[in-house]
Design goal:
Length: 243
């Protein structure tokens, strides 16, 4: 049964303020996923020792990966990645629109990879939305539109996942569930799925949305001594089959 994980890794700096790429990789290794969507990765940044965090985590998990820099200043990059054990191809990366009246907000982006599961193509889109509600709404509408979920190449089955910085009561959530189903609602087994803040998770702001053709078995947010400290978010895990 395939397993996919979305995880905001907070540039691999834990709640103990310790930078530890290996610890984040250990969290993921324990979960044994087939596909991983990561947010808040540093690549070549001075603040995290110039490491390529996307490459290092993928190397430790023996996965291929694609990284997209939502923010780049000279050689320093910051953004999101998709890692997988499956045959894959990069379809698209790109920025998400910001708030027109707040141009200094942190840039955001999305990353789309097609993976092949049992000979069938599955579209995986990873994203990390902004913090301002109106900004989030603009970005969610863009993802739901013709550039991403409505794109001619985005044939079902598809999974949209990431850190949306928005709860199930938000306009963002309603916008995206007009196109896809929330995986949590479809899960056969109900588990806790709050992911933030990791020491005492009370908010569901990391989400998985699925198209027809994805049969969801279980969605969970593993809560243990390692996940509580490795990042400020818990990982969100989905076990599924292709219908």
């Amino acid at each position: 049964m395939p397993r996919i994980v979305t995880y905001n890794v907070h540039r691999c700096v834990g709640n103990d303020r310790r930078l530890d790429v290996g610890r984040v990789a250990a969290v993921l290794a324990e979960l044994n996923p087939d596909i991983v969507a990561l947010q808040e990765l540093d690549v070549g940044r001075r603040r995290t020792g110039h490491a390529d965090q996307a490459h290092e985590i993928a190397r430790r998990l023996e996965m291929t990966h694609h990284f997209h820099a939502a923010l780049q200043v000279e050689e320093e990059r910051y953004g999101d990645a998709i890692l997988t054990r499956y045959p894959e191809r990069l379809v698209k990366v790109g920025p998400l629109p910001g708030h027109p009246r707040m141009p200094r907000l942190e840039p955001r982006g999305a990353l789309w990879v097609e993976v092949e599961i049992d000979g069938r193509p599955v579209q995986i889109i990873n994203t990390h939305l902004g913090l301002v509600p109106r900004e989030q709404q603009i970005q969610a509408a863009h993802l739901a539109g013709s550039a991403w979920l409505g794109h001619a190449d985005c044939a079902w089955p598809a999974i949209l996942l990431g850190d949306f910085n928005a709860t199930a009561s938000s306009i963002v959530y309603r916008t995206l569930t007009s196109r896809l189903e929330p995986a949590r609602r479809l899960a056969r087994r109900k588990q806790p799925t709050s992911t933030f803040p990791s020491p005492l998770p009370v908010l569901r702001i990391d989400h998985l949305f699925v198209s027809p053709g994805i049969e969801v078995h279980e969605v969970s947010a593993p809560f243990d001594p390692l996940t509580r400290v490795a990042s400020d978010h818990l990982p969100l895990v989905m076990d599924f089959d292709l219908a």
